[in-house]
Amino acid sequence: xxxxxxxxxxxxxxxxxxxxxxxxxxxxxxxxxxxxxxxxxxxxxxxxxxxxxxxxxxxxxxxxxxxxxxxxxxxxxxxxxxxxxxxxxxxxxxxxxxxxxxxxxxxxxxxxxxxxxxxxxxxxxxxxxxxxxxxxxxxxxxxxxxxxxxxxxxxxxxxxxxxxxxxxxxxxxxxxxxxxxxxxxxxxxxxxxxxxxxxxxxxxxxxxxxxxxxxxxxxxxxxxxxxxxxxxxxxxxxxxxxxxxxxxxxxxxxxxxxxxxxxxxxxxxxxxxxxxxxxxxxxxxxxxxxxxxxxxxxxxxxxxxxxxxxxxxxxxxxxxxxxxxxxxxxxxxxxxxxxxxxxxxxxxxxxxxxxxxxxxxxxxxxxxxxxxxxxxxxxxxxxxxxxxxxxxxxxxxxxxxxxxxxxxxxxxxxxxxxxxxxxxxxxxxxxxxxxxxxxxxxxxxxxxxxxxxxxxxxxxxxxxxxxxxxxxxxxxxxxxxxxxxxxxxxxxxxxxxxxxxxxxxxxxxxxxxxxxxxxxxxxxxxxxxxxxxxxxxxxxxxxxxxxxxxxxxxxxxxxxxxxxxxxxxxxxxxxxxxxxxxxxxxxxxxxxxxxxxxxxxxxxxxxxxxxxxxxxxxxxxxxxxxxxxxxxxxxxxxxxxxxxxxxxxxxxxxxxxxxxxxxxxxxxx
Length: 669
What we know:
Elements: H1 2-5, E1 8-10, E2 13-15, E3 19-21, H2 36-47, E4 52-54, E5 58-59, H3 77-87, E6 93-99, E7 115-116, E8 130-131, H4 134-153, E9 158-163, H5 168-173, H6 183-186, H7 190-203, E10 208-214, H8 226-236, E11 242-246, H9 253-256, H10 268-278, E12 283-286, H11 293-301, E13 307-309, H12 311-316, H13 320-325, E14 383-386, H14 390-401, E15 406-410, H15 418-422, H16 431-444, E16 448-451, H17 457-465, E17 469-471, E18 475-477, E19 483-484, E20 490-492, H18 493-497, E21 511-515, H19 520-531, E22 536-540, H20 555-564, E23 568-570, E24 573-579, E25 581-587, E26 593-598, E27 600-604, E28 607-609, E29 620-621, H21 631-646, H22 650-653
Parallel strand pairs: 3-4, 3-13, 4-6, 5-6, 6-9, 7-8, 9-10, 10-11, 11-12, 12-13, 14-15, 14-17, 15-16, 17-29, 19-24, 20-27, 21-22, 21-27, 22-23
Antiparallel strand pairs: 1-2, 18-28, 24-25, 25-26
Helix pairs in contact: 2-3, 4-7, 8-10, 14-16, 14-21
């Protein structure tokens, strides 16, 4: 791991490691300024060993307002200065992300037309942009230069110019969006070269100039192909110090930051080709779901890249580099690549976080629970944790870190609970890593673990009487809102996923999967059964299958996979009756009845807290015992319960309800 954790010099500036924490949307801003939450968020990664931190991409012009809390470079000076001051003592370099989203922006906030190289409507928003004339082009060049000057005047080590996803500069580079007949169409790289030259003039050679460049738009019929991307990189390399190789365009936004359906390190071969082409004229960064240290080390040793961007990995574990350097790679909290809490660009405006580490994004509200050595002195009162799923495991881990003797009792034969079931779903296999990590941590911290048993009522009462009982006993299937006739086969999805061979639990014949939630579960079990050769119909009340997958970016890919697998989709359908051999659905709008052949129905519905364990007075519930939801809520509430039992003020130590007011770093005249 030494090569990954060793120092690297760029433009005469030394970074403490070759690991980059890249730019990404956070929704941590106060208006369009960087906030104290931004600073704490970046400082935590610098303290954890990140060699370079690139701040959230700031728009260089006020009219470019792509999402509500999108930073504006002109308002970021004080925040940049505070970030540099916070990160510099740890040896991390800080760059300002600079960009303009062009036709991939939004007119909802600015109330102004979108800018673009040509009048080509965006494939996502369908909005028609205005075609930029020379005046607008000049203003973009000037704005990049002025923003870069402000960044370095604020004490930053340089800037990163965005010509990747959501970037006007990439739109000028691509035949998909640039259909001009002037000099900017004849040479599509002309604007990018002008911007880089203007920025370099303002920041000088002593500051780092980085470029995030899409080298594959995933649209080979007209866009930037890998071959064209390599040639473009060869041409651009002398103008920059650092080149971050990315892929994606408006034609494939989900592919830019995919979930675990796409293998980690998906840009490896593209990056290898680019690095070979630039031939040492600039340093090259590998980006693209690099979340495992072994893969990052291999990329450096194999000559794929000079640095590695591990953004989601450091959201999951801000201490990643420090743990590697200390020889504790096994203690790194895994990234599950689910995009469930770290992808925030949706209509809910959520704050960035992580299902495995809920403190991420909430550094100013959630105090740390462990010391620098990962442990705490003993002396707290004993605590009994009933239930060894994600909530119980996290509660036991936090309690042990705070010095409590902990006894963890789980009815099943192994710890991890529903994480192991969820890991059976295609694209969610990495959830098993989280179960293994939590299990290993409670064992390392000396928690007494008992599986295959339940605590007695007397033990529960005794623990509750001393304020030392956490109930994290999971959930059971909720009620059905349809009629089930004698002889009909209805199985809960947990029964199917819990079987050694899920398809073998079902009788021969066609299968129906009923989805009332719209998340990854029904889509995943449908894929699993279809891959086993079963004829499957998925039934949903929604207009599309898996509607909640829009949040993680998997909605379109999931529906494409279902179609390719030959799955029949009964959309806008309400399940009314289950009979031996068929089910009856009605159209959600018209009420028209339809019979669908079905030898067995798999129910993928909401669940209810398990009533099997009575809650004595004084018990603290956690996870599904409170209300069955996602892994994020289970882990978060496990921590809250532990802090409540430990005596911490959980209401202020952890995020509860809306985020607390944040302070923007603004210049007051």
